[in-house]
Write a structure and sequence with these properties.
The protein is of the alpha/beta class and 183 residues long. It has one domain. Helix content is 14%, strand content 35%.
């Protein structure tokens, strides 16, 4: 074995090991640009840090494999994403914020049981909420959904944050979360 290979291979192996460990945590917010970025986190059983989904993402995002998120999950101002899911996620030690996702029709977190907070706003096409394990613990839940959008003929009325219906549930103990959609 050449002397280069003798030193290069262990260095590359160490670098790969450090990269694999560091990809499961961040001191800032990890930004998911596409489905491939989300798939890259599948080896993380626990992700330490917040995860934000980029505003330009057009892919459906599946955060599969992660069981615990020590941080926030944020998706906002995205007119293209249609579905967000996490097949193994049981706990979010932070807030799940979904805001301004105008084409989002499905949120599927079948194993989620514990979340520090849920903030949902402006999700006009949301039709499927897959929390089949039932969230049993949440500190705060805020849902603000605008009333049916005015028709193009009646553009004189503007919706302001104070005119939007808001539901806030605040609790420090165990709760049973049941959400229903009305159109």
């Amino acid at each position: 074995m050449s002397s280069f290979m003798k030193y290069a291979l262990p260095a590359l192996a160490l670098t790969g090991s450090v990269y694999a460990q560091s990809s499961c945590s961040t001191s800032a917010t990890a930004t998911i640009q596409n489905a491939g970025d989300a798939t890259a986190l599948a080896a993380c059983k626990t992700f330490s840090g917040s995860i934000a989904i980029a505003t330009g993402t057009t892919d459906d995002i599946a955060l599969n494999g992660i069981k615990k998120l020590d941080g926030d999950l944020i998706a906002s101002d995205n007119a293209n994403m249609k579905r967000i899911s996490a097949d193994s996620l049981e706990e979010i030690d932070g807030t799940m914020t979904l805001d301004g996702l105008t084409r989002l029709y499905a949120v599927e977190f079948p194993k989620l049981k514990k979340v520090q907070g849920i903030k949902w706003n402006a999700l006009p096409n949301l039709q499927t909420i897959g929390f089949t394990a039932e969230v049993t613990e949440a500190d705060k839940i805020t849902s603000r959904t605008p009333p049916s959008a005015p028709s193009r003929a009646s553009t004189s009325r503007r919706w302001t944050p104070s005119s939007l219906p808001t539901t806030v549930i605040s609790t420090k103990s165990t709760c049973s979360l049941v959400m229903s959609l009305t159109r």
